[in-house]
């Protein structure tokens, strides 16, 4: 079975590979850059969900695969500050869409201010930390948790949860 991932980001591919191993799903993963149809930095949960679904559908169509998976990081303003999260969409050949998000992490206000001005989280965190391309590695969550929780682990758990609609379809239909 071919599983198309709507990204070539190393952390996202690792997350999907580990999730499929955990689920016992036989696969050949192919990552491909596709358009999310949303801003480079999604600023709401709905925009993150839309981006994840678009990535999953576009990757599936482009690679003519059985499953498409889209992963989209996003932020959401709350009364308590800006929260970071990530959304995963799984699309199958029957048009079913499974959705899940990973944990939420409060962003430092100095980061949130820059995102509100239109910057993207990855480059902002690179400039603040002095590191390069952290979104390919530990991600913002890895930096903020001192490496205790990394981006691939967060997306791994969300990917497993997004498969619920596919692997337990009897409860959804």
From TrEMBL:
Q: Write one Gene Ontology MF term.
A: nucleotide binding
Its EC number is 3.6.1.73
Q: Which Pfam families match?
A: NTPase_I-T
Positions that bind Mg(2+): 35
Write down the NCBIfam families for this protein, in alphabetical order.
Answer: inosine/xanthosine triphosphatase (TIGR00258)
Protein name listed in UniProt: Probable inosine/xanthosine triphosphatase
**Which InterPro entries has this protein been placed in?**
ITPase-like_fam, Non_canon_purine_NTPase, NTPase/PRRC1, YjjX_NTPase
Protein source organism: Candidatus Mancarchaeum acidiphilum
Which protein family is it in?
Belongs to the YjjX NTPase family.
Q: What is the lineage of its organism?
A: Archaea, Candidatus Micrarchaeota, Candidatus Mancarchaeum
Q: Which reaction does it catalyse?
A: ITP + H2O = IDP + phosphate + H(+); XTP + H2O = XDP + phosphate + H(+)
Key words of the record:
Hydrolase, Magnesium, Manganese, Metal-binding, Nucleotide metabolism, Nucleotide-binding, Transferase
Gene3D superfamilies, A to Z: 3.90.950.10
Binding residues for substrate, per the UniProt record?
Answer: 7-12
